[in-house]
Design a protein that fits this description.
Layout lengths: L1 E3 L6 E3 L16 H6 L2 H13 L5 H4 L14 E5 L16 E5 H9 L4 H11 L6
Antiparallel strand pairs: 1-2, 3-4
């Protein structure tokens, strides 16, 4: 069976690799392996439970909140990035539950690390003391 090639525009047999197809460049990193680990999955579930499965920024009506009690698309955010602070990757005081919108703002630096740490401090006394 023949099919048209999206890479060179020619016709190849089904299953034949086109020489014009670029080689995959993404390599699995130690951060990828960490994100697939049982330790991370367990910690992520713990942090979501700690934060009552709610975005902590939305809960406080900060940074253009649309829904105050937002539990949609909840993600756990590393305040200090894994690549910069490997030893803090599983610390409770470095993790916070955020919706996708606020997670992107935090990744871009539009929500400061200090503000996120203050949210953790006020919601879980004793964590950062």
């Amino acid at each position: 069976m023949l099919k048209s090639c999206a890479y060179c525009g020619g016709i190849h047999k089904h299953g034949q690799r086109c020489p014009s197809k670029p080689a995959a460049t993404k390599k699995t990193t130690y951060i990828d392996r960490f994100r697939w680990s049982r330790a991370w999955k367990s910690k992520r579930a713990y942090i979501a439970d700690r934060d009552k499965h709610l975005c902590q920024v939305c809960l406080r009506n900060l940074h253009n909140t649309q829904i105050q009690y937002n539990f949609i698309d909840l993600e756990v955010h590393h305040i200090e990035p894994i690549a910069d602070a490997w030893d803090k990757r599983l610390d409770d005081d470095n993790l916070i539950s955020l919706c996708r919108y606020h997670h992107e703002l935090a990744e871009k630096g539009l929500i400061t690390k200090d503000k996120l740490k203050n949210i953790i401090r006020e919601s879980t006394p004793g964590v950062l003391d």
